[in-house]
Every structure is written in C-alpha cells, then in structure tokens.
Design goal:
The complex is a heterodimer.
Chain A lengths: L1 E4 L7 H9 L6 E6 L2 H13 L3 E7 L2 E7 L1
Parallel strand pairs in A: 1-2
Antiparallel strand pairs in A: 2-4, 3-4
Chain B lengths: L2 H21 L10 H11 L13 H16 L6 E2 L3 H18 L3 H9 L3 H22 L8 E2 L7 H15 L18 H18 L3 H11 L5 H17 L17 H18 L3 H9 L3 H19 L5 E5 L5 E4 L2 H20 L7 E2 L2
Antiparallel strand pairs in B: 1-2, 3-4
Classes of the chains: A alpha+beta, B mainly alpha.
C-alpha cells in the first residue's frame, strides 16, 4: 500500500498529493498529516472521490486510511 | 451541519458584522480590511507618517485573540513553524504593498463589491487570474517545505503583541499617533470593534474561512466548500448595504477606491498569486498566527513592514477624488505601478525557485 507523507505540509499540498496518489485509483492509500485542517481537507476530498476514511490519531499526528 | 452550510453561515455573520461596523463608524466598505487595518496600526506606532491612516484597530487584535481562544478551546492550538520563514516575510511585504495599490485586502474587495464598487469587480478578475497562476505552480510542485513543532512561546508571540497593542490603544500614550481626519479617524467604538474581531476570529478559525482558498479549491479540486464563506459575506453584506443605503453601483465616487482598472487588476493579480504562495489570504494568516503558526506570524510582520514601505515610499494609491467640475484626481502613483510590476516579477521568481517535484509518496 502506498503512503503519502504530508506531515508538516500546509493546505492545499496534502490534498494535492492525495489527489495525485489517487490518480491510478488504488484500493487503499495511507495519508499522514499533522494538523486538523489538513485532516479535514483530505477527509473531505477522499469522501468526494468515493473513498471511506478511517482516522487514527497519535501524538498530534493523524494517519488516514483511505479505502473503497 | 455540513461544512458548506457552516461556511456560508460563518460568512453571513461576518458580512453582517462588517456592515454593522460601518454603521458604528468604520469607513464605508471597510467593516473589515486586514491590509488597511494593519496599515493603520503601522501608522499608529509611527513606522509610517501618513497622517490620515493612523489608528490601532481593535478588529485586528480581536481576530488574532479570537482565533487563539477558539483554537485553545478546540484543542487545535499548535506552535509550528520553520517553513521558509524569510520567504514568507518577503511574500507578506509583497502582498501588502500590492493590496495598498488596490486599496484593500481580498476581504475588503468582497465588501467593496457588496457595496456596488465595480472597481473591486475588476480587482476580483485580477485576483482570480493571480490565483489561477498560483495553481499552475502548485501543480508543478510549488512548496515552501514542511513546518515543524516549535516551542509553545513561539506560537504565542503575535497574540502577545496584540495584548500590548490593546494596552497602547487604551492608554493612548503621546507617542502613539491617532488620525484626526481621514479613514484612520473613522472607527467603531473600541469594545464593539474588539468584540467584532473576537467573534469573526473565532468563526474563521473554526471554519478555516479564506478568500484565496475558496477560489483556489474551485480551480484545483472543483471543491466549492471554502468559497461558500466568500459568498456568505457577499450576499449578507450586499443586503445590509442596500438596507442601510450604502449601496451604490458604479466606478466613480466609491468610498476609498480608485478607478484605474489596469492597476486594480494587476495589483490584485499580485495579491492573489502571493496569497496562494503563502497558503491563504491576509485574514487567514492572522487566524493561523492565533493558532500558533509562527510562519504566519512572520507573514503578518511582513504585512506590517510592507505597509510602512508602501506609505514611506509613496507606493500606496490615493483614493480617487471628484472635483466640483468633475475632474478626477488620485489613483495609483507612478512608484506604485513600478512596485506592482516588480512584485509580480519577484513573485514568479520565488514561485519558480520553489517548484519541483518532491518525493512524498512511498511504496510499502
């Protein structure tokens, strides 16, 4: 499974990287972010692309598992 | 409530408050203007001596502290920084000078449109063009690189400065300048303006409202969520302006505006491009500063210095005045036009220099 490491990046880059990683329509993708804005934006974008999103938080960082 | 409705509602409240601030004394179509208000504060503390624009605007103090309080309440306060701070400072200076050639930040541009100012519509077209150029660079990998955890105090400095400014405003020592005429002398009562800032700061923190982000996300992702905030402000401020008889459609005779279309367009192109490169409009930078983002705080310091440069070097435009015989005076200065062109060139150089594909996707 691919992992997009968008920690420390500010919007729109986390969403942009997620968009690029979803271009070849993988079944699953992990996106790492470290702020609530990026978490919300990636979650919304993934939802719009028809992915389910599971979020795990650890020490102020978020791991978003995107799957169909 | 979904995020589109939340943003539209937040925008609606901000539009209402903006018109109310005019009713209570702010200059017309200037319920809020981040560029103008930071410029007024720069004047009040004497780093420029443009006598008509000197006042410590409580709205700015409220915006930063409102965002801080809302971020603390929502456990979203995060002291962060280290993403190309000096580049952000330069971008802040550039965006501020360009905004003062136009005579307003993106938020005031929306409020001016809501007041019937067609010059601001020209500005909006330039603004969208600038954002579109910025999106091209984003797609080519433009990035100011990552931010990192900072000491808590580093995320609190801009908020601390706001408290110091509030003390200076209330104490009004002799070394602080307050305009006796002109836009700087026109202001809503202190507590009202402060409360307005606090409310809008809190709302903007919660909803991530951003004038630049709204248009950027539509171009980049066809996502209309953030733009709803922009529309909420526009619709409610428009209704408010009509109800209070502030609304007047036209180019000439608009409050604190000039009629030079070319420079309204180009200056807002620079504001749009520079703001995309910063990741958000001036309002958003204030809010992020409150949330603990030291890079945004550095950007705000850049705005402050940019405002001083704009007035000390005669780059800021003068509002168009109509004489009794109908002749027009004012508008952008020659130096302001040169500055706008230089800013556009510098922005493109910064954008090119920071655009390259990064390795952020790992197989595994």
């Amino acid at each position: 499974m691919k992992t997009v490491d968008a920690r420390g990046l500010s919007c729109p880059q986390p969403v942009l990287l997620t968009k690029q990683a979803l271009a070849d329509k993988p079944a699953e993708l992990t996106v790492l972010v470290d702020n609530a804005t990026a978490r919300g934006n990636v979650q919304r974008f993934a939802g719009n692309q028809g992915y389910q999103v599971e979020i795990r938080e650890e020490g102020g960082e978020y791991s978003l598992l995107l799957h169909k | 409530m979904n995020s589109k409705k939340a943003l539209f509602s937040a925008g609606a409240v901000i539009g209402l408050i903006a018109v109310a601030l005019v009713w209570f004394g702010n200059p017309q179509n200037m319920g809020f203007c981040i560029a103008c208000f930071i410029r007024d504060i720069a004047g009040a503390v004497g780093v420029h001596r443009a006598e008509a624009v000197q006042y410590i605007r409580p709205e700015i103090i409220g915006l930063v502290l409102g965002a801080l309080l809302m971020a603390l309440a929502g456990k979203e306060f995060q002291p962060r920084g280290g993403s190309a701070p000096m580049t952000r400072f330069i971008l802040g200076v550039a965006v501020m000078i360009a905004a003062l050639v136009f005579l307003g930040c993106p938020l005031r541009m929306v409020l001016r449109i809501a007041g019937g100012d067609l010059n601001a519509v020209v500005g909006l077209v330039g603004f969208i063009a600038g954002i579109a150029v910025g999106v091209v660079f984003l797609k080519r990998g433009y990035s100011l690189k990552r931010t990192y955890q900072m000491p808590t105090l580093d995320g609190l400095w801009l908020s601390a400065v706001q408290i110091a400014l509030l003390v200076l405003l209330v104490a009004a020592p002799a070394f602080i300048f307050f305009s006796e005429s002109g836009p700087g002398s026109m202001h809503a009562p202190l507590l009202l303006a402060l409360a307005a800032g606090l409310i809008v700061g809190g709302l903007a923190q919660k909803t991530r409202l951003c004038m630049v982000g709204g248009i950027r996300d539509v171009i980049l992702f066809k996502d209309w969520t953030l733009l709803m905030g922009f529309l909420g402000i526009l619709v409610v401020a428009l209704i408010g302006n009509i109800a209070l008889h502030y609304f007047k459609v036209g180019f000439i005779g608009q409050p604190i505006a000039h009629v030079d279309g070319v420079w309204n367009f180009l200056s807002m192109t620079a504001v749009g491009l520079g703001s995309v490169m910063l990741g958000g409009c001036p309002l958003r930078q204030l809010i992020l500063s409150g949330e603990g983002n030291a890079d945004s705080a550095v950007t705000v310091v850049g705005y402050f210095v940019g405002a001083a440069i704009a007035h000390n070097f005669g780059l800021a435009s003068a509002a168009t005045a109509v004489a009794e015989d109908g002749t027009l005076s004012g508008g952008p200065s020659a130096a302001g036009k040169v500055a706008t062109v230089i800013i556009l060139v510098v922005l493109v150089i910064i954008a090119v220099a920071n655009s390259k594909r990064q390795e952020t996707v790992k197989e595994g």
